[in-house]
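PT: before anyone asks, these are the final sequences, not the draft ones from last week. 608 residues across everything. Please model them as a single complex and drop the result in this thread when it's through.
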Amino acid sequence: MNGSGRLERLATGINGFDQVALGGLTKGRTTLVTGSTGSGKTLFAVEFLGRAILRSGEPGVFVTFEETPADLRRNWASLGFPIRQWESEGKWAFVDASADFEEAPVIGAYDFGALAARIGHAAHQIGAARVSVDSLDVVFTRFADPGVVRHELARVTAALETAGVTAVITAERANEYDHVSRYGVEEFVLDNVIILRNALVHERRRRTIEIVKMRGAAHRTGEWLFTIDPRDGLVVIPLAFLVPPFAPASLVRVSSGNTELDQMCGGGFFKDAIILLTGPSGAGKTLASLKFIAAGLYGGERCLAFTFDESREQVRRNSLGWGIDLDSPEESGLLRIVCDYPEVASLEDHFIRIRRAIEEHKPDRLVIDTLSALERIVSPRALLDFVIALGALVRQHGITTLLTSAPAGRFTPQLTPSIAGEIASLTDATITLRYFEHVGEIWRAIAVMQTRGSAHDPSIRQVAIDSGGMHIGEPITRTAGILSGTASLPAPGWQADPSGTESSLPDG
Amino acid sequence: MVYSFRLYVAGQIERSRAAEANLRALCDFHLAGGYELEVIDATEQPGLAEEQRILATPTVVRLAPLPQRRVIGDLSDHQRAAYALGLPERPGPTRQGDEE
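LR: through. Structure below.
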């Protein structure tokens, strides 16, 4: 076995897992995957073989103690795994150790020599380098004396390693945060341990995967969110590390849908930019998003919008109010609007939906309105993960993306909502809309906080919204503390002059 | 009435030899030698072990008379083994049918 040098990795092909494992499982070693009932252990074992067959036709052996081969063939067909066909092609072999006959009494000493021989035989016959064993606990319930069973299973796994196969062995855990496995299986599967958790947090199921140990090999630590998708199987999130090294950043500019805002950003958004638009409710975020989409549609770009705050009817009414027709581009297929309540799915599932919509619709522009609505269903940290994953996804496809986010209160003293600060560091531009008090009136202000790779207008400007849309005016020069919510010092009266030309813009 | 057994072992190891010796001693005593025994080494013929889905070795399968019976282990406890395999009490003419 590998005594020195770098351990070779074997990619599992499981969505996002290999990124967390920094390349995959260690080749030629055995990995224990434990979890409580329904945590996805069997799926992990099935995908470990199935993904390799789909990708490269690399054969694998599935040792099943629990479900019958017939059940497994049927249950995983939805993943697009034609197990029956693979069996006939010599890519998949079952070692059927499921218990459908009566228990045999044990009289005297025994070992698992026949099991080891059968696994070795099956692997040899189809030339398998991968073996999945699911799940070991059942063996303990079928044979007396756990000590003997443990000892014998240890020999079987040792035989797997000697044979040079990479193995995944599953075992059950009684509790989410307790011993690694029920029967102490981890004591002999020493190399690698992965725990799948399916915990109830704030009345919501939260699935995580954690690589507890991977001997001699670097891996990412901590619990990673994952979801089980009927089509994609296990999907580990974030997929932030999926992205290949950055594609050359686009220098092409596209319109934000507002000429003045384009100017503030130095001539529009970069084609591949992610823009975060923050502001309290009613400050103009939805309007800006709609204009952003309208500008895309006007230029023949494909647009995709996810709204988590409003119903389809509300979106339609809003857009008609601003003179934006969404119906005909939706009918023609240029535009797709998805209205969802955040509560209908977990954040991971929302991510999968968005990813699928992106793959299907292939948009040039994407709007998510608003991230804050999603914050209702998850922790800020999970939302940050979501944005990282989303960012990776849209960068991969070069989609101009507008994310909106709202701070808690209308006159919030916070500069940004709880996580917007961190999210902002992941985006290319952050545009902030604010209300502020000005001599007995409520005014709106806009500022471009940061842009990547170009100069931008550093001033805070007043904003007026009327039936014609959003109009950005002159810089507000005499009021301080607008962004921190402590506006002071009266400024001279400001006249909205939407048609006026900005004269004092530093050119980008 | 012919008693027919198949004994699955894994490798030429002491445990395999013990199981076969114990089984033959049992049959000689209880069946007066009137039996068939086939020994299969799973390490040499894993396909046959797969067919009968043998997990642990040694495993003896009583093929006849029906119903089949299985016992795992080296059969070191003769009394329990004879009972589990449904062997008659003592040598003599076997009765028709299976004694349950």
